[in-house]
Write a structure and sequence with these properties.
The chain is α+β, with helices and mostly antiparallel strands. It has eleven helices and eight strands. The chain folds into three domains: about 120 residues; about 90 residues; about 160 residues, L,D-transpeptidase catalytic domain-like. An eight-stranded mixed beta sheet has the order 3-2-1-8-4-5-6-7. It starts with a helix and ends in a 10-residue tail after the last helix. The C terminus is likely disordered.
């Protein structure tokens, strides 16, 4: 009996050992499975993050969503470093859960950067296109208004700077850098708008004398009618010379003037064409003038001398200035530019007609303008600047 009991006990103990051993194996396998799961390299998550970063960069996130892209790239570096740290551990001690989380966050941040970049880029593209169109219109308007009107050198330089900035904006737009395109278009608008507004102020102040000039011309035409004589009227703004005989308009000619004709001639060498009532004091045929033919005027007259002395006295002109002289109506004109030293130049065939009728003593009246031309108003340039800095505000800018 004792022997049978020992056999039974050994068999029972063996079975229990097998059960315990089996359970241990199951637990071990479960543990290995769990560790394997947590130790799985985050290859898929990293690939999704990499693709998202690549798409964000292609969308221009480095330009249009730089902060979000930098955050995603920093996260990518951290995730890569964390993965490397885990790989240095023993297999059973690796845990990639945090690496998976970092990679997933990078993917989300990169996708946000892409979405923001696309939205900002499209908005800036529209803004830049609108601003470029507007500033081009203002540049064309400036050129039309001041093509033959002398503009101060500083204002002309400002306008040219604006025109160059517009060209830079176009280049940026063509390379799809809409942020730079919009910013440069705004700057161009500011420069052109400022130059246009200031130049228009000068022009408006000049044209304020139109009523006085109209009176001068009416007096000259009246004198021509009363004296049954020839009279000449020069309209500098229109670049026209009109010939009257006995108060009636007989002919009209295009003229070239001095390059700084806007305003009365103040001193020798200023490039201005004088304004006022003058008379022909000498007729110069071919060979008697450096030009084709010429009618010399009595500039400076008494009014010119008084104005010159007053300008020196109040400091507008230096004491070393000279009043100048030898102002003529002469030939060799028709060039379409203002090139004379202050004279009035006609085409030679027109000069022949004028020379034949003019006499010593013929009255010549030179005025700035006879009409207040609508041209470009100061308000239009001011509104251009306001519109570009208001409705055309750059998205994401701090203005």
């Amino acid at each position: 009996m004792q022997y049978i009991g020992e056999i039974y006990f050994r068999r029972l103990w063996g079975r229990r050992s097998l059960v315990v051993a089996g359970g241990a194996v199951v637990l071990l396998l479960a543990f290995v499975a769990l560790r394997s799961l947590s130790a799985s390299p985050p290859i898929a998550a990293f690939e999704r993050a990499r693709v998202a970063l690549s798409q964000a960069r292609r969308a221009g996130a480095n330009i249009y969503a730089p902060e979000l892209l930098r955050t995603a790239e920093t996260g990518w570096e951290q995730a890569t470093q964390s993965w490397g740290n885990e790989n240095q551990k023993w297999f059973f001690r690796r845990d990639f859960k945090s690496v998976w989380s970092l990679a997933t966050t990078v993917q989300w941040q990169a996708q946000r950067a892409e979405s923001l970049a696309v939205a900002t880029r499209d908005s800036l593209q529209f803004t830049a296109a609108a601003e470029l169109t507007m500033v081009k219109q203002k540049i064309d308007e400036f050129k039309r208004a001041f093509a033959r009107v002398p503009v101060a050198a500083a204002l002309r330089q400002k306008f040219v700077a604006g025109e160059l900035m517009m060209i830079e904006s176009e280049y940026a737009f063509n390379r799809q850098d809409f942020w730079q395109a919009a910013a440069k278009a705004q700057k161009a608008a500011e420069l052109v708008g400022s130059a246009g507004a200031d130049a228009t102020k000068v022009l408006q102040a000049y044209l304020a004398q139109v009523s006085t000039w109209q009176q001068w011309v009416a007096e000259t035409i009246g004198w021509s009618a009363q004296q049954n004589a020839v009279a000449i009227v020069v309209d500098k703004m229109a670049h026209r010379s009109r010939l009257y005989v006995a108060g009636r308009l007989k002919a009209e000619y295009a003229v070239d003037l001095g390059p700084r004709w806007l305003g009365h001639k103040k001193q020798k060498g200023d490039g201005a064409t004088p304004e006022g009532h003058y008379r022909v004091i000498k007729k110069k045929g071919r060979g008697q003038s450096r030009y084709y033919k010429a009618l010399e005027l009595d500039y400076p007259n008494e009014d010119d001398r008084q104005n010159f002395l007053a300008a020196q006295k109040n400091g507008e002109l230096p004491r070393s200035a000279h009043i100048g002289g030898l102002i003529e109506i002469h030939g060799d004109g028709g060039r379409g530019i203002n090139w004379t030293a202050g004279c009035v130049a006609l085409r030679n065939q027109d000069m022949d007609e004028l020379f034949a009728l003019a006499q010593i003593g013929t009255r010549v009246t030179i005025v700035g303008a006879l009409t207040e031309r609508p041209a470009v108003s100061q308000t239009s340039f001011a509104l251009a600047k306001k519109n570009l800095n208001g409705a055309g505000h750059i998205p994401g800018s701090s203005q």
